[in-house]
Design brief:
The protein is α/β, with parallel strands linked by helices and 121 residues long. It is built from five helices and five strands, in the order βαβαβαβαβα. The chain has a single domain, classed as Rossmann fold (3-Layer(aba) Sandwich), CATH 3.40.50.2300. Strands 2-1-3-4-5 form a five-stranded parallel beta sheet, with helices on both faces.
């Protein structure tokens, strides 16, 4: 069965890079433009893994994770922050909200694939 990845990022080039990196590996990628769009897609698509940016309009990544974790659709799935932010205090906020992990942009395609495979077993 094909695993579904939700990519939540306000940057279309980043969403495209995630898609271009993971689809050839056999994953289905669904994209969202901000945290609110991400929540809507989380409910509709029930993804197996989520990559989310931190700084986005409408709803930021920390708020997205907090709200996703409060819902059945997001309670048990891995959610990884994929962001340019690398401050330790922001990583702590992400972890406290329920982030599974943290990857910095620009990301290495091989690392994104490896993290995806590891988290999806």
């Amino acid at each position: 069965m094909t695993k579904t990845i939700l990519s939540v990022d306000d940057s279309k080039p980043i969403r495209d890079m995630v898609t271009f990196t993971l689809e050839p590996e056999g994953f289905r990628v669904v994209c969202a433009e901000n945290g609110q769009d991400g929540l809507d897609k989380l409910r509709a698509e029930r993804p197996d893994l989520v990559f989310t940016d931190l700084n986005m309009p409408v709803m930021d990544g920390i708020t997205f994770i907090t709200k996703a974790r409060a819902e059945a659709a997001g309670s048990g799935i891995p959610i990884v922050m994929l962001t340019t932010e690398s401050a330790p205090e922001m990583k702590e906020k992400g972890k406290a909200a329920g982030a599974t992990g943290w990857l910095n942009k620009p990301f290495d395609a091989d690392k994104l694939i490896a993290v995806t495979r590891k988290l999806l077993g």
